[in-house]
Write a structure and sequence with these properties.
The chain is an alpha+beta fold. It has one helix at 2-20, and strands spanning 23-29, 32-35, 38-39, 42-45, 49-55, 61-66, 71-77, 82-87, 91-97, 104-109. The chain contains 1 helix and 10 strands; from the N terminus they run αββββββββββ. Strands 3-2-1-5-8 form a 5-stranded mixed sheet, with no helix packed on it. It is globular, with a radius of gyration of 17 Å. The structure holds copper (II) ion.
Length: 110
């Protein structure tokens, strides 16, 4: 009986650990980065978290980063489409748009 409750506890912990890797959506709207409808210039996530970059504008965006922490290039994609990036190391990444040089987002991974 004790052994069963131990196994249940362990199973619960595994589920909790898996759920800890979060997922957020950062929109591209009016040539800015937005989260929950509000403009953001810095966003903090945890190691292992995923950011879904979602284009909410009626024109293309091309989200990329040349940061040492995370180098990626999502290519250009239209309104409604979303592409994920996993931030798997701690540090800071500058995220930009290749089409709109004014777009800047700092991602702090802790
Ligand atoms: Cu853009």
């Amino acid at each position: 009986m004790l052994r069963i409750s131990y196994l249940v506890t362990m199973a619960t912990m595994v589920v909790a650990t898996t759920a800890a890797a979060g997922e957020i959506t950062i929109g591209q709207k009016d040539k800015t980065f937005v989260m929950n409808g509000a403009k953001v210039e810095t966003v903090t996530v945890k190691v292992g978290d995923t950011i879904n970059f979602k284009n909410e504008d009626p024109w293309f965006h091309n989200i990329f980063s040349l940061s040492d922490l995370k180098t990626f290039d999502l290519g250009s994609y239209p309104q409604g489409q979303s592409k994920p990036v996993v931030f798997d190391k701690a540090g800071t990444a500058e995220v930009e748009c290749a089409i709109h040089p004014t777009m800047m987002l700092k991602v702090e991974v802790k």
